[in-house]
From TrEMBL:
<feature type="binding site">
    <location>
        <position position="152"/>
    </location>
    <ligand>
        <name>FMN</name>
    </ligand>
</feature>
<comment type="similarity">
    <text>Belongs to the NtaA/SnaA/DszA monooxygenase family.</text>
</comment>
<dbReference type="InterPro" id="IPR036661">
    <property type="entry name" value="Luciferase-like_sf"/>
</dbReference>
<feature type="binding site">
    <location>
        <position position="156"/>
    </location>
    <ligand>
        <name>FMN</name>
    </ligand>
</feature>
<feature type="binding site">
    <location>
        <position position="227"/>
    </location>
    <ligand>
        <name>FMN</name>
    </ligand>
</feature>
<keyword id="KW-0503">Monooxygenase</keyword>
<dbReference type="GO" id="GO:0016705">
    <property type="term" value="F:oxidoreductase activity, acting on paired donors, with incorporation or reduction of molecular oxygen"/>
</dbReference>
<protein>
    <submittedName>
        <fullName>Monooxygenase</fullName>
    </submittedName>
</protein>
<feature type="domain" description="Luciferase-like">
    <location>
        <begin position="69"/>
        <end position="386"/>
    </location>
</feature>
<dbReference type="InterPro" id="IPR011251">
    <property type="entry name" value="Luciferase-like_dom"/>
</dbReference>
<feature type="binding site">
    <location>
        <position position="56"/>
    </location>
    <ligand>
        <name>FMN</name>
    </ligand>
</feature>
<feature type="binding site">
    <location>
        <position position="102"/>
    </location>
    <ligand>
        <name>FMN</name>
    </ligand>
</feature>
<keyword id="KW-0285">Flavoprotein</keyword>
<dbReference type="GO" id="GO:0004497">
    <property type="term" value="F:monooxygenase activity"/>
</dbReference>
<dbReference type="InterPro" id="IPR051260">
    <property type="entry name" value="Diverse_substr_monoxygenases"/>
</dbReference>
<keyword id="KW-0288">FMN</keyword>
<keyword id="KW-0560">Oxidoreductase</keyword>
Amino acid sequence: MRQIVMVGFLQAQNCTNLVSSWRHPASRTDSYSPEYYRHIGRVLEAGKFHMGFFDDRLAMPDRFGSDHAHTVRYGIRCVKMDPIAVLMTMGMATERLGLGATCSTTYFEPFHVARQFQTVDLMTNGRAAWNVVTSMNDGEALNMEHAAHGEHDRRYDRADEFMEVVLGHWETWEDDAIVCDKESGLYAHPDKVHRLDHEGEFFRSRGPFTVPRSPQGHPVVIQAGQSAWGQAFAARWGEVVFVGTPHTLEAGQRAYKAFKDDVAALGRDPDLVTLTPSVYTVVANTKTEAEDKMALNDKLFEEVDALSLLSEAMNFDFASKNLDEPFTDEELDNISGTQSMRDRVQEASGIRNPTVRDFIKYSSRARPRNPLVGGPKEVADGLEALFRGRACDGFVLAADHVPGTYEDFVRLVVPELQRRGLYHQDYKGATLRENLGLPYPQRGDWKCSTAPS
């Protein structure tokens, strides 16, 4: 029976992905302490979440006004810790919760990423996932010894080859390579550990790889590309794919079908690729209480939050334009950051050349986008409509405050979804792949995903 996949959207920073969350009176203020993340992990696991996932950037949001002062002043993601280290803290406090983190193909090397995530997978008994990103702005480039962020489509060319190298390394150890026979002195079969010897346009990586297979083979691959290139990349490589919240059920259904068709066209099984839109839920015992909670969220918003995050995501300084000044065609065409945000605003507004004010209004940047507000029934109804309507396979739960959003969801919504048969009562297995219904990857399986798009 088809059931909802649930992912917790996490940040190793001073706020959630909703940057005003740190101002919420119920938010914890120790977001740089280990117990903060251990507690979140225990809450998500009590709610049988499939995974806790850490988003990441390699810079503070400092594109707005080309300065970080506003970022620090308003607490706009000014603390950004290494998500892998934080993920391990959460992993030691849980036993079944999947653990995903972001790492960029633009600013890291494939061998390093392959070794890092395969080690995490071993240390968590097969619960790791890697979110593949190409990064988004010049701030990240400057922190990583580059003068500017690379051209959008070219970054995906590099990312494709990056994936070939990582997956190639992950399969160079055969499952039964290690025997550890003390009596004979044989640790592992040399003929079952292979070199990659990759030589491509962007990378040369010899091997042999230094980390053996894990209980789930290798980490699950997450992708969240939203541009045309990003969606093609996700269809080729992704096993869990994050998408934006659909404006309507019909729009979600169209996007879902189109993406699954793209997956099938590449020779992959679309039922083995999980599509999960982000979703905000504001839930309380009654709808009236939930509406009061949402009203509080609205009061926490600052206009600078949106301007800062728009500048970061689109790699364009929004301080360089007046609020009511339209973007030119040239500016819109040369967006080197998140092109899907430009497209989303144009579609939602119906305006070819939106103003800065239009971007603030229609992007929902720094605000909960299409939140589900209500009691357990109303929120479950909203999730059920999208899931049963084949607009998604599950959800990435974004938090307006921590830990309350997750606690409220687990206490109020999870039991309602379970009562309806939409959500599992317990984990199916020990590894993330088992709990997602993904098969154990055999050596060579990934090569079917390199067919041309």
